[in-house]
Amino acid sequence: MKLASSLRNRKHAGIWLKGLREKAGLSQVELARRLRFKYYSFISQVETGFSRVPTEKMEDWAKALGVDPTHFARHLTSFYDPELHRLLYRPKSRRSRAG
Prior knowledge:
99 residues, 6 helices, globular, mainly alpha, 434 Repressor (Amino-terminal Domain)
């Protein structure tokens, strides 16, 4: 069950990423070049949900697409790790007062 929802979330992330890339007017090949990837196939794998943007590449990926890296990472986290996203970004009024 968790595997199916994880794949579904990665596919939704891929759709979002593809939209950002197209809005930036970039092909998969052009984005791969900006990210200094040898092959563009990794871009395709991410956009189809078979792979994820590596955490260490999120900032570079955001800059290559011309978007704010913080927003980019936060939004990707909502797809890739929704429970972590919920813990980090839920409204302050709902957070525990402990700690």
